[in-house]
Specification:
This protein has 207 residues and is an alpha/beta fold. Helices cover 30% and strands 19% of the residues. The chain contains five helices and eight strands; from the N terminus they run ββαβαβααββαββ. The strands form two sheets. Strands 4-3-6-2-7-8 form a six-stranded mixed sheet, sandwiched between helices. Strands 1-5 form a two-stranded antiparallel sheet.
């Protein structure tokens, strides 16, 4: 019997992006390097990352600290809207706000995003086959981090909305066989000095 073992999924939003989103700012590069230093002693089996430049550059900077860990590009780790709720799913007081936020999402983006969100759940969540625990890092974007945290908490599908994650902040989810998923760490920025924290997140949640 192969059995199943625990997966530890380390989720990271890319470092601060340049204004044209074609790679990272100097702040973003510093964030990514510090993140790599933070995770260098974790026995990572792989670093998965999205195809866009800001995620790819972040993953490569982290990988500089992980010489024997493969970097694996994945469309499912990309930047997309994972789920569009219907009005009746949303709290009445905030439904208009959320629907306005999502109004520019095209039909093609809706279809593609839903498919990629399902694929991300299949690829990156749940226990793993075998007897050895697996540690994996996923360098991605704010929406997907929120989607996977929402799933781990068994929250309604619309609840990915308003879960904001700072650039290069670390979130860790544990998937243990025969138990619910556990969010061990959320939006952890202890590896970043104060001047490099909270980028990518609106001012009001900063603490």
């Amino acid at each position: 019997m192969t059995g199943t073992a625990t997966r530890y999924l380390y989720l990271v939003r890319h470092g601060e992006a340049a204004p044209d989103e074609n790679g990272l700012t100097e702040v973003g590069r510093r964030q990514a390097a510090l993140l790599g230093h933070r995770v260098r002693d974790i026995p990572l089996a792989a670093v998965h990352h999205g195809p866009l430049p800001r995620a790819r550059e972040t993953a490569r900077a982290v990988g500089d600290h992980l010489p024997n860990v493969p970097l694996r590009i994945s469309e499912a780790a990309g930047d997309y809207v994972p789920y569009i709720p219907q009005r009746e799913e949303l709290p009445p007081a905030s439904a208009d706000f959320f629907l306005r936020f999502l109004a520019d999402t095209t039909d093609e983006e809706r279809t593609q995003g839903a498919a990629l969100a399902r694929q991300a759940l299949e690829l990156f969540t749940g226990p793993v086959a075998g007897t050895a625990d697996r540690h994996e890092l996923l360098v991605t974007h704010n929406f997907l981090v929120a989607w996977l945290v929402r799933d781990a908490m068994h929250a309604p599908k619309w609840r990915w909305l308003c879960l904001n994650h700072a650039n290069a902040a670390l979130t860790v989810i544990r998937y243990t066989p025969d138990r619910p998923a556990t969010v061990l760490v959320s939006n952890d920025m202890r590896h970043l000095p104060a001047a490099l924290r909270w980028t990518g997140v609106p001012a009001e949640p900063h603490i």
